[in-house]
Each structure stands twice: as structure tokens, then as C-alpha cells.
Amino acid sequence: MNTLNPLIAPLGLAGVVVADTAIGDVRGDEGFFHYRQYDATQLAEHCTFEQVWHLVLFGDLPAADGTEGAQSAEDAAWTARTQGALAVDETIRTAVTQVLQVTPQADVMTMLRTGVSVHGSLVGDAALWDSDEPAKEQIALRTAGFLPWLVGAAYAVRTGAQPRAPRPELGYVGNYLWLVTGAEPSADAVRALSRYLCLTVDHGFNASTFTARVVASTGADLSGSVVAALGALSGPLHGGAPSRALDALDEIGSADRAEQWARDRLAAGERLMGFGHAVYRGLDPRSELLKRTAAELGGATAELALAVEDTVVAVLDEHKPDRPLRANVEYYAGVVMESCGLPRELFTPTFTMSRTVGWTAHILEQSRGTKIFRPSSRYVGPPAPQPLP
Ligand code: ACO
Questions:
Q1: 32 DSSP β-pair partners
Q2: What are 165-182's pLDDT values in tens digits?
Q3: Continuous H helices in the chain
């Protein structure tokens, strides 16, 4: 046993503080989470994705002009920088497309790992340890700006189509919708998807954010840190499947079948997808705004989700009277994404895009420290040393 460190952390490190961060926090008991000094749900409702990107990466919102509807010089400069990142050089697009076409049957999350790695090599991503602050900011911006095109390209390759060229003038959200659907995005779809993306940029020290920071703590390059985080997020216990809640709604079919469906699933020992949360003990603040957004978008699936929610919650209350299980972010996320024209297989990759902005901010923050993560384990194998056989 390692006698240097007799502390034994709980399984999964639950509740253990392993780093300081000024990027954001989740206050589960209060049903509240924030980015920097602002309520994340208010940011999602009132700011553009680009503004939230600036806040998370640099610590403040681009300065306002003070005149209604006018853009400040700082905001305009930031818009120009983000559009540059969204543009993705043609040579990079061609090379990455060729690599993705080697395994057109791979799932999109796997293609994202490959694509981010190739992109890092093509743009000369260097070890964080050897990079100065402007170089680190530049690669953080380029990598996060590359993701919307990459998700669109991976989907195109999977469906046997040619990836589209980006249209940065549509902004981060509009450009992404264009890349996937090939249609001019509606203002309603851009607003709805922007809310979802803003709400999912960061959420405490979850497994993928921690993973990104562990790799960054070694001084490795930013792309390597993002690729590791992508691997963590792809697992069913994490990025999971926002599509599962939508699959459940398909199964239910109509509101009058919801109660029986919920009782049958619980009797079979199953969990109801889209309900409950590891940190929030009441409402998940993300689901509240997405619920309103789904209602605004309307449509059959949104109506079904709204009609089914209370019935399912009532059955869950009976099932677990001591544990309030409420709709979580995934319950309405799928409804919103589908209403915006995104296919189900892109739900987790879409979540990955916004989370990449959060990861890159965490990677930069971690890279400013010099301490490598190096916890201990408890040895539980046969006593050692024993004579060789
Ligand atoms: N349906 C039925 N029972 C549930 C559900 C649910 N959705 N959620 C929790 N429970 C039960 C658990 O089985 C547990 O019962 P037990 O004590 O008899 O074993 C009890 O409620 C307490 O569970 P928690 O401690 O709250 O659950 P935990 O924190 O471990 O898990 C989780 C949280 C994984 C989100 C869980 O609620 C769940 O599996 N929900 C369904 C899947 C889902 O919607 N995932 C997306 C979450 S949002 C996100 O991660 C981005």
C-alpha cells in the first residue's frame, strides 16, 4: 500500500475537489449553474453563442456598445475572429474529408476524434507546455470553430454525401444548421438551437472536462486534450444519448398511454430516460428553458413531450417518494434538436460542439498551472514480492 498518501477518495471521486476553476460552477441543491459570474440560463436566453464563447474563454462578455442594436468594436472584432475560425481552410477540409472517407461506416463521435486529431496536425498544434498565451488562444479558437464543419462533414460522409463548405456569415449556430441540412436556417431554429448550445457549454467537473484537464496538466497539446475528452463524452454514462428520451416518446406514442408505459417500464426495473439527475435534486434549470423553447417551436413531438411530462413525474413520485425525479436536460433537448432539423445521430455530436468550447477554456486554464494530476491507487492484488515461478 502507498503509505505516502493514506487518504482514500470515494468511488468516482464524488465530492472531491481536484482543481480550482473560474470558468463556472453547478449548485445542484439550488437548481442553479453559472458561467463565470453570470447565470447560464440567462446567458442562453439573452446572448448569442459567440458572446458566451467569449465569456467562457476570456472571462468577460464582449463589451456592449451601449446603443440599442449597435455592435461594439470589441464585439465586431470577436465576430470576425469567430467567423475566421468557422471558415476552415479548404486544404484542411479536403484532407480531413479524405481521412473520414476511409471509414464511412464509423459513428460520428468516432469520426470527431479522428478529425480533431488530423486537424491538430494540419494546423501545427504544439505542446501547451511550449506555447505562449496567444498561441494557446488561437488553437483553442480554431479547434472549437472547426467542430461545426467537422460534425457536418462526418454526417455527410456517413450518408454518402459531399461535405458542404461553411458559411461563417450565418454565425456559429446558423452555419452549423446550414452544414447539416443544406437549407437556409430559420430565425426560430437558430434561436432555439443557440439556447441549447449555450446551456451545454460547461457543467462542472464532469468526466470529459476532468479528462481534458488531466491531459492538459501533462503539458500535451490542446488537440490531444480534446480528443481524450471526446472519448470520455462518447460513453453511454456521459454524453449518453439525448436521443433515448425521444425514442421513449416514440414508444409512448400518445399522452393517454404515458401512465401505463411508465408503470410498465418501472415494473421491469428500467429507468425512464430524460428524468432524474446526479446533481440536481429538484428541477434541472436547463430543462426549464428548453421546455419553453420546445413549446415555442410547437409540433407534434413537442406537444407530446409537454403532455407526457407531468404524468411521468407523478408515476416517478409514487415510485420514489423520497427522491424527486424531474425532467432533465435530455428530455427536451432531443425535441428541440429534432424540431431544428437535426437527425438523432447528431444529438450527441451537437452537444459535443458546445462542450468543446467549455473544454478548450478548461484546457487553457489548466495549462496556466504547472502541477500534473497524479493520484494514487490502492493495490488489492496478491501480496508482493513473491518468488518468480
Ligand atoms: N427512472 C427511474 N428510476 C430512477 C431514475 C429514472 N429516470 N433516476 C433515478 N432513479 C432511481 C434510481 O434507480 C435509484 O433507485 P434505487 O435507490 O432503488 O437504486 C434512485 O432513483 C436514486 O437515484 P439517483 O441517486 O438520483 O440517481 P443517480 O444520481 O445515480 O443517477 C441519473 C442520475 C443517471 C441521471 C439517473 O437519474 C438516470 O439514470 N436517469 C435516466 C437517464 C437520463 O435521463 N440520463 C441523462 C441525464 S442528464 C445528463 O447527464 C446530461
A1: 27
A2: 999 999 999 999 999 999
A3: 40-46, 49-58, 73-87, 90-100, 108-122, 133-158, 171-181, 187-199, 207-216, 222-233, 242-252, 258-267, 285-297, 300-319, 329-339, 347-367
Centre of ligand 1 to C-alpha 277, Å, is 6
* 46 flagged as catalytic: no
Q: Where are the domains of the chain?
A: 73-186+201-236+344-367
The verdict on whether 133 is a catalytic residue reads no
| Confidence at 184, pLDDT banded by 50, 70, 90 | very high
Global pTM?
Answer: 0.94
Mutate to test the pocket of ligand 1, among 317, 323, 331, 351 (most ligand atoms within 8 A of CB): 323
- The three cell numbers locating residue 31: 437548481
| Long-range residue pairs from 225-231, CB within 8 A, at least 24 positions apart, any chain | 225/128, 225/359, 225/363, 226/116, 226/143, 226/356, 226/359, 226/360, 226/363, 227/113, 227/116, 227/117, 227/120, 229/355, 229/356, 229/359, 230/109, 230/112, 230/113, 230/116, 230/352, 231/113
28 lines ligand 1 (CB under 6 A): no
User: Fold for domain 73-186+201-236+344-367?
Assistant: Citrate Synthase; domain 1 (1.10.580)
Report, as an integer, the average pLDDT of 108-125.
98
